[in-house]
Amino acid sequence: MPELPEVETIRRDLETILLERTIQSLQVKDLSVLTGIGPKGQPRRRISAPQFKSKILGKTVQKFDRRGKYLIMEFSDGTALVFHLRITGQLLVAPLNYPERIRFDFDEGQRLYFTDRRRFGEVIFSENWKALPEIVSLGVEPINEALSGEYLKSIFRGRSAPIHSILLNQKLVSGLGNIYVTEALFQAGLRPKRPCGKIPFSKLSELSQSIRQVIADSIEHRGYSMNTYVDAMGKKGRSQLFSKAYGKDGLPCPRCGATFKRIVLAGRGAVFCPRCQE
C-alpha cells in the first residue's frame, strides 16, 4: 500500500500540473469506487455517476492536500475529492495499461486518471473533508516536530504492545506503513518486538528523528516502488534502491554484518538485525 512518501510525491506532482485547472468533463467507468459524504462527515453513501458529475463538473482545483495516506483535491468552493489509493490505486496524468475507473478532463487538455487493478481504492466526494471520520481520527504527521520524543512517550505510556505494531496505528501516527516503520526502527537501533512502554526517553527521541528522516529521504527519492506504485507521471520511485532493512531478510546487515531476521507481528512481517537492534 502506498504510504506517506508515495502519496506526498503524487500530491506534489498533481499540484504542479493541475492546480487552478477546471473540470470540464469526466467518465465514470466503475461506480464501486465512488462515495458521497455530507457536510458533517456523515452519512456515508454510494452515489450515482450523474450525482457525482453534478457535484464536481465546472469546479476549479484550489489546492492539493494530504493527510496521512489520503490525498485531497480541494475545489474553490471548499468541497473536495478525497482519494484513498489503498493497495493498487493510482492517480495518473497520462494513461497507462491499468484498469481505468474514473477519468477527469480538465481545461487546457489536462487529464487525470484514477486506476485500480483490484478496486480496493476509493474516491470520496465531501462537502467538508476535514470533518470526515477517517481524517479526524488520524494521529500526528511524521514529517514535522509534532512527532517528538515527548509525543511518542505520551502515546506509549502504559502500553506493552510491540513498538513495530503500535507505530502502524494510524490513530497515533498517520501515514506510516510497514516499509518506513522497519527502516526507522533499524536506524534507531530498536527491535520491532520491543514493548513500546519500556523504551527510555533518549531512544524515543532518537526514534522520532529516525522516522522523520526516513520519510524525508523517501520523499526525496520519490517513493518506494515494490509492486504497483508509480508517481503521477507513471514513473517508479527510487527509495527501494536505498532501503537498509526492509525486504532484506536473510541478507547481511550493512551496519554490523549480522544476518537480518524476519518475524511476524499482528500479521505483518518485520525484518530486523538481531545484533545491532536491541
Secondary structure layout plus pairing:
Elements: H1 4-18, E1 23-28, E2 34-37, E3 44-45, H2 49-56, E4 61-67, E5 70-75, E6 80-84, E7 89-92, E8 100-106, E9 111-116, E10 122-126, H3 133-136, H4 149-156, H5 163-167, H6 178-188, H7 201-220, E11 261-265, E12 268-272
Parallel strand pairs: 2-10
Antiparallel strand pairs: 1-8, 2-3, 4-5, 5-6, 6-10, 7-9, 8-9, 11-12
Task: Describe what you observe in this structure.
Helix content is 26%, strand content 22%. It is an alpha+beta fold and 278 residues long. It has a six-stranded mixed beta sheet with strand order 3-2-10-6-5-4, with helices on one face. A four-stranded antiparallel beta sheet has the order 1-8-9-7, covered by helices on one side. Helix 1 packs parallel to helix 7, helix 4 (149-156) packs across helix 7 and helix 6 (178-188) packs across helix 7 (201-220). The mean pLDDT is 93.
Q: What would the keywords be for this entry?
A:
278 residues, Helicase, Ruva Protein, domain 3, 6-stranded mixed beta sheet, 2 domains, elongated, alpha+beta, 12 strands, N-terminal domain of MutM-like DNA repair proteins
CATH topology of the largest domain: N-terminal domain of MutM-like DNA repair proteins
What count of helical segments does DSSP give?
Answer: 7
Average pLDDT confidence is 93
- Biggest β-sheet description: 6 strands, mixed
Low-confidence stretches: none
User: How far do the termini sit from each other?
Assistant: 28 Å
Using only C-alpha atoms, the radius of gyration works out to: 20 Å
Q: What topology, given as strand order, has the largest sheet? A: 3-2-10-6-5-4
Number of domains: 2
Overall morphology: elongated
Q: In the CATH hierarchy, what is the architecture of the largest domain at level 2?
A: Alpha-Beta Barrel
Main CATH class of the largest domain: Alpha Beta
The computed structural class is alpha+beta
DSSP strand content: 15-25%
**Annotation, overall tally of beta strands:** 12
Helical residue percent band: 25-40%
H-E order: HEEEHEEEEEEEHHHHHEE
